[in-house]
Amino acid sequence: MLKTLSLSWAFNSMAWRGLLYTVFILHFVLVCQLLLLQPLVSALGGKPGNAAELFESVSQNIKVKRYSEALNDLNAAIETDPALSEAYFHRASILRQLCRYEESEKSYKKFLELKPGNSVGEKELSQLRQAQSALETAFSLFDSRDHTKALEYLDRVVLVFSPACSKAKILKAKLLLAAKDYSSVISETGFILKEDENNLEALLLRGQAYYYLADHDVAQRHYQKGLRLDPEHSELKKAYFGLKNLLKKTKSAEDNVNKGKLRLAVEDYKGALALDPNHLAHNVHLHLGLCKVLVKLGRGKDASSSCSEALNIDGELLEALVQRGEAKLLTEDWEGAVDDLKSAAQKSPQDMNIREALMRAEKALKMSKRKDWYKILGVSKTSSVAEIKRAYKKLALQWHPDKNVDNREEAEAQFREIAAAYEVLGDDEKRAKYDRGEDIEDMGMGGGGFNPFGGGGGGGQQFTFTFDGGFPGGFGGGGFGFNF
């Protein structure tokens, strides 16, 4: 009897445990179902099964560019109802806009399986393939440096069918940067960063645009923000430290100018220019700074070249025009100096420094057109009166017409030049006026009034030259005596 009661109790105990286990399993399944359905319930505003509200919620998320939330709702709906064709269609459309083309194509194909022959689905699948092909082509054209055509593919195809494509937007910014359209780069990357403020590529490109506009402080802030997010980002590190090095070199050059260490400044300017030849907005000032230092050092040819580089970048840079004029004066390019300084004076007619420089250049040009009596006598501007007289005697003997019977006309011409030169340089007052660039009537300006031979209606005076001891070999006839 006790044994029977014991068995009965054991049986009943097992039955209760089985019942409890069954209840637990049922509750577990119910909880799992609720968890799986929760995203869909949320998307439907607490009304499971209301597809219209689901798609309205998805549409609203797309409008505010919450693509991830829209995709989560659609994925939950599809998991709950794998036959919900419209969910596949909406998911495919969102994925196409994001240029997640492989995933999008699968969803379009699934939609068309459920809705075979649907014209809208087939049309969008075709657009997807056009956008995918155009994006691949744009990348290829970018690599081959055909930037204009690459931009056309992006603007006319990719971003029409895939307006939320981050890859296409970044590529467009790169193309605009390559085309030096820095303002557009800033605009395009601004839209990207509004959607994703931590987009490293957008931060880099936007920083580079500001850099090439010479807004270095803003560029540096973009690089720094990117490096805080990813300290090992190679391109951001290269851009950041490249900028730091450029600013350091530039400051060193300017400091050396202020200290009067001009040769060191030249090396610093050249070093800064070598860092990034494409940074025109900054390099224009480096070229100008280098030109000014070279003018101070008297290196006219090099200075003129540096100022020309600055003017090639900015043709309206007045100071570069003035400095190039000064450099041309150093190289005795008088006409070039007058042209540059005259252009500068026209741009800034009230600038007295430019007017003074122009007057110097015009005077130098005028002086360059008169005969160089020093050169004719073969003496320097610092020669003494005695040296000038000796040179004159030597040349007068060499070119005396009676001594050059076979080439008398040439000798007479040379003799006139020699006599005219001595007429100016042998007189202290006339020489001083000549050195100052003043006009000297008849003397030294190639006029017809001076004739050392006299006669011939020229109105000139008769010169009688007599050397002590006469000419060697009995030379001395023909009316040309020498009297010093």
UniProtKB/TrEMBL annotation:
Taxonomic path: Eukaryota, Viridiplantae, Streptophyta, Embryophyta, Tracheophyta
Keyword Plastid: no
Pfam families the UniProt entry points to: DnaJ, TPR_2
TM spans (from-to): none
InterPro entries linked to this entry: DnaJ_domain, DnaJ_domain_CS, J_dom_sf, TPR-like_helical_dom_sf, TPR_2, TPR_rpt
PANTHER family: DNAJ HOMOLOG SUBFAMILY C MEMBER 7 (PTHR45188:SF2), DNAJ PROTEIN P58IPK HOMOLOG (PTHR45188)
Name the record gives this protein: DnaJ subfamily C member 3
Record's GO cellular component terms: endoplasmic reticulum lumen
Keywords recorded for this protein, A-Z: Endoplasmic reticulum, Repeat, Signal, TPR repeat
Coiled-coil segments on the chain, per record: none
Gene3D superfamilies: DnaJ domain, Tetratricopeptide repeat domain
Main localization, broad class: endoplasmic reticulum
Organism whose genome encodes this protein: Gossypium arboreum
CDD domains in the record: DnaJ
Compartment list: Endoplasmic reticulum lumen
